[in-house]
């Protein structure tokens, strides 16, 4: 008998086990009850060769082994033929062995079903919570699902299978959970429930992506051993483990986007991260519709959604998709009666890769710029280490060789670490004050952020660091204590350097206004105090001789590129770009050709202009000299912010030459860069060769005047 199946020995049929598997005294057969009233009549020895007696019929029985006179294992219907003068027994084989283990239903009383356990044609046992609504009509949808999962049946006996299911009332009741993730204090996966909750996964359309192969030791020895010294690889693995912590810390979803040139190891990082939860197929692609990615996110709720190559996404849709995945809410849809369907919800940590940032990809759609909320839901992490993704090669000849090895290793070991992590997390979660620990981490210097969006980014990366540290503490990741949190701090610094030092939304407004002036400064602003009449089409305002732009409200709204006008004015005022205004206003009533018009007086400040262009965000910090301890390790204060490492990031002496090279290259890079914006010369403007430099505003005035001479 299959060890997974329990049994109870009884004298006569008066009891059944949780799986309706019973053993009759005098029988060697194993069967399930479909019609208990008749089964109660089966007592003592069988009549002839183990045949079911007439007074016990009609009845359904499941045999796990061929039993005389029934030469085939499976579900049988033992009926009676009453057409003749005397009733005769009729025995019909329906399908391969199947049992009903429990009745299931959703928390709201809907989504009723049966927990079925059956033998597939491969000989393996499968468990599936079958929704009862699939029996509606002919029951074809339920049979399709069973056939797809390996059940074999007699197509001529299809009505009998539906009849057997409708007669099954096992005493056990379980809550049907439609998505993976936390339920009460347990974690529900398609194939198992980790914890003590009386629940089961029930969703006929979902796919079980949580495959496994190899062992925990195999993963540690063949894959995990290459994590130390490679902070971006540690960060990617930690992000894959952070999904289950979202619910426990009360956080929404977050996401990391590894950005770098082709063949730098980004896809390998995704493969290693995916091996936490499943095989290579756990990685999805951005080449999908918004609805498709909503479904993908709901199938991996409370774990990780891993998407490769952002360049395959539609630039028109990706902004909306990033919002949806980060917010964890699907699109509202109507059912056939016009009422709203239940909205799909999820919590996932998104891990993505691509050769371009989110903003660069969105710009393909008519130059659109991402909103700050999108940028903070998918954090761009640049992949520009010593060897692409890697800092430590661990005796491999190069980054490509290490990537090739890891790709092969992830084919052999996968899906074990995530399950082991969940088992410990379910056990330890009541003792861990994870929200408190997260708050404590966010108070440290590495994750301090003054502005709300930066705080959200810091929380996302700190949560990744916490997940990696828990996995290290539980013996799942072979890294040094603190190394996962240090990798998360590095990720936060790299992201913040890309964003600059101003508020993200303010920077976007300044950048948008500057881009508008660069494109249209000489063509859509009419010069004031000009002796000659100038024809301006689609006028956005006027420009004074001193370079001050007088924006109309419509012109400034257009220049702000989708930001609310009030929000854009706040950013301009904070940057000092609004140089004059009436009391209590951000605009000033100005006489133009004798009539008063309310205009916004805007002039760029050179330091803010360079910041909007991203020059300040690229400015490297000074490189701190490296000092080494007696044991050959890099001591505290070893690496500067320019090299990208936290000041306390430690590396073994075996990779000393690599890190010395990083210091030298960083110092050389800094010395070669011109940190000041290039002056705006006028040598290309006929008649003005004698003027050495002009501000951008003055340059625009000159071009406008020349064009209309």
Keywords:
five-stranded mixed sheet, 709 residues, disordered C terminus, alpha/beta, 17% strand, disordered N terminus
Explain what this protein looks like in three dimensions:
Strands 20, 21, 22, 23, 24 and 25 form a 6-stranded mixed sheet that branches. A 5-stranded mixed sheet has the order 9-8-7-10-14, with no helix packed on it. α5 crosses α6 (266-274) and α13 crosses α14 (452-473). The protein contains 21 helices and 25 strands. The protein is an alpha/beta fold and 709 residues long. Mean pLDDT is 80; it is low at 1-49 and 609-709.
Class by alpha and beta content: alpha/beta
Number of strands: 25
Strand content: 15-25%
Number of helices: 21
Estimated helix fraction: 25-40%
Radius of gyration: 34 Å
Q: Quote the distance from N terminus to C terminus.
A: 99 Å
Major sheet size, sense and barrel closure: 6 strands, mixed
Task: List segments where confidence is low: pLDDT < 50 over at least 5 consecutive residues.
Answer: 1-49, 609-709
Q: What form results from the Cα inertia axes?
A: elongated
- Determine the mean pLDDT: 80
